[in-house]
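One record is kept unedited as follows:
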Amino acid sequence: PIRGFYKWTKNKIENEILLYSLNTNNKVKIKNKTIDINFLDKSSRALILGEEKVFENWTINIIGKKQFYGRDNLIDSETNLTGCLTFLDIEVKNININSNNLHCEDSVNFIRSKGTIKNVNISNSFSDALDIDFSNLTIENINVENSKNDCVDLSYGNYKIINLVTNYCGDKGLSVGEKSNVIV
C-alpha cells in the first residue's frame, strides 16, 4: 500500500476526507467548497484521500510553475505516486478540477475512485494531463491544453465522458488501455 504521504502536511476537509500535501501553500475554504493549492517547489505534491467517503460539490484549483519541469521529479520517491494531485480511494460527486503548469508524470491522477466529475480543466502539463486507473467515473467535461504526453489516459476501469476537448497533446488525445470500458 501507499504510505509515504503520512509524513506530509494534513488538512481535514469534511466527512473524514483528508488533504495531504508536500511543499504547498493551501487554502481550504469550507464555506465556498474550494481548495486552492499552490506548488512551492519541484517536490510539491497533493493527495486527497477518501477512504471511500463522498467528496461532493468541491472545486480544486492547483497551480505549479514551469520552472519545476524536469524528468527528475516525475514520481514521488517515497510514495511512488505519479500525480501532482492524486485522488485515492474516494467517491466524488460533481467536483471541478483546474490545474496549470504541473510537473509530475500525471498532473491529475485518480486511483480506485468512483462517481461523477463535472469539469476537468488542465493546461500545460509536463507529461500526462489526466490519468485515471482502477476507477469507475463519469466525467461531464474534460478540457486539456498543452500536454507533453497523453492528454487523457484511462486504464483498468469503466469510464463515461460526455464532452472531451484536447489540444496540443504530445502523444494521444485519449489513450484507452488495460481492460477499460470507455464511452465518449
